[in-house]
Amino acid sequence: MWLTQLLERNRQCRPDRLALVDEQRRITWSQFHDRTLELARGLADLGIGRGDRVAVLSKDRVEVLETYFALARLGALFVPLNHSLAVPEVAGIVERVGAVAVLGESDLLDRHPELPASVRIRMALDEPAFEALGAPATERDLPEVADTDPIAVLHTSATTGQAKGVTVDSASFRAIALGWLAVARPTDDIVMVNCCPLYHGSMVVSLTYLAAGATVVLMPGFTPQRALAAVEEHRATHMWLVPQMLRFMLQAKGTARADLSSLREILYGAAPMPLDVYAEAVERLGCGFRQVYGMTEVGGPFVTLGPDEHPAPGDVTARIPCGRVVPGMSARAVDEAGRELPRGGIGEIVVRGPGVMQGYWNDPEATREIVLDGWIRTGDLGFVDDAGRIHLVDRTKDVIIRAGQNVYPSEIERALMSHPAVRDTAVVGMPDDDYGEVPLAYVVAEPGTRAADLLAHAGQQLAPYKRPRRVEFIEQVPRNPAGKIVKKLLRA
Hints:
The chain is an alpha/beta fold and 492 residues long. Helices cover 30% and strands 27% of the residues.
């Protein structure tokens, strides 16, 4: 089983190298391996076994990954929970998956005193009872777990509706990791600061670099100061973040004083990289950049654009291309009938390969809706260029149909972001009696900025039918923890 093999190999090849680091603990690969085995036996002693679902409610810490690996060793399914969800949302996920246990940090568990009846074990990761699990180690035999056995239910970011539970197996993690590492070609000295939470599909990036024997540095939550300090303290070579986090880091006062000379590569994903952020980061940080394009339903990161392929900031006219699909996976752009489009033709990006999910948990109807002739529909509109690189244009659900013409909000957002007073923006469609739908722009801007100036600025760059009808100023564009704009809140 992939996660177990990952631990065994790294214990054999680099036993004394640090595997995981957080603000409280540091463990080597040998310790990671031994604690996982010990914890698996301790959880088995509690009655957790093959096929059981166990929810994990915690900020990022070493114990979270120890728990994931231990549950996978038992053939139980770990179900990461977004700790920022409201009480009814957490209870809903726990009930839908029929979790037999909830493990988490004590202060987060205290926010949820009542959980569905299926939960019979409730334990805090930061209390002595959890630390004592499996110690001293028992002689309990552990089951043989096949790569095709489900080991996790990862929930989508729910930017358009209720989060769906994506059921994945070890074969998915293995396929993505091996394909990714074949392209990224990791060295033996990688230290990665992980700025992204471990409760959704982005965690696969960390699992992938762990497979290569990297040291992964975890933080209980992102702040620019915490991220900068982690890079300095651990002489990090890599960072994994979303573009908005990079913007906050560049704006932080401590960035100019921080020693970031160890950084070789910044991995970014989940949202498009704003060109102004990219240009400033290239100039100030002097490291390489790697784009990550992924989706929980297809196993995580399946497309990448490496440092050598990134354009110079002055050469980017629209968006930076996402890159090429990793070995073992396939992706293409198709029309509404599922027919592959010629190079440059805009259609929905679909994906297939051994990394794709087994399906949505207990939701065959939703699973059927996302599968098109064996391909997983991403919901992203894009095209493939002559070099085989995937370019994204917009989300299929975000396209505005104005009098029969497609208007892509991302194009309007780029035009508005090129104004020096604009800090962030999101464009949605609003009903119109004459045209059916017209663009409405929500903008975060410097004080004193006038809507008329922004409309005039956008008008110089966009065809008349693409121009926003109105600009509304807001204090903050709503984003989920992955950095994706939650447009359903703006439409509401």
